[in-house]
Design a protein that fits this description.
Length: 180
């Protein structure tokens, strides 16, 4: 009996060490938020340049490329602005508001992706067989060359900030949110 009381007392005294503090995280500074938005737009521009080169866009395809690239930029600005608003409100939302805001971001992403598909379709239809093969490989989610295992995310690692990063050498699919 004494042993059970000692074990119970020890467990109770240690439970505080394992308890999670539900303190509200501090909102990032506006400078940090702006830097994140600028970094996101830079990644979009890098992705556009990468796709233009990788897909071997011809001079004849430039007129079809431009609306696609412009839509990627628009998607990047839209999502950047939504994540900026989300970051600015960090610590002020309750769980329900947080879910609602995330649902809005998810819906906006779906809407923006549909616009991207609409812009990409005529470009894709203008591709040669070789360009289509490159596009199919480049845009495929979960492809082994991207580190995936049949789905988005595959072998992603967590970086210091806790967000996911892609495996070294893996090119993100154009439909990845970070590419928009």
């Amino acid at each position: 009996m004494k042993k059970a009381i000692v074990v119970l007392a020890t467990a109770l005294s240690m439970s505080g060490a394992f308890a999670q503090n539900a303190a509200t995280p501090a909102a990032p500074s506006s400078a940090a938020i702006e830097a994140g938005v600028a970094e996101h737009q830079q990644r979009v521009e890098e992705r556009i340049a990468f796709l233009h080169s990788t897909l071997k866009i011809t001079p004849e395809q430039e007129a079809l490329w431009k609306p696609f690239a412009d839509q990627m930029r628009t998607n990047g600005r839209t999502m950047g602005e939504m994540f900026k608003q989300r970051a600015e409100g960090l610590g002020t939302r309750n769980a329900l508001d947080d879910m609602k805001e995330y649902a809005q971001i998810t819906q906006a992403h779906a809407d923006e992706m549909q616009k991207l598909v609409t812009a990409f379709e005529p470009l894709y239809n203008s591709f040669s067989a070789d360009q289509k093969a490159i596009a199919d490989k480049t845009f495929r989610h979960g492809a082994p060359e991207r580190g995936g295992k049949g789905g988005k995310g595959g072998n992603r690692q967590r970086n210091r900030s806790g967000s996911q990063s892609k495996p070294a050498g893996a090119a993100p699919a154009a439909s990845d949110p970070a590419a928009q």
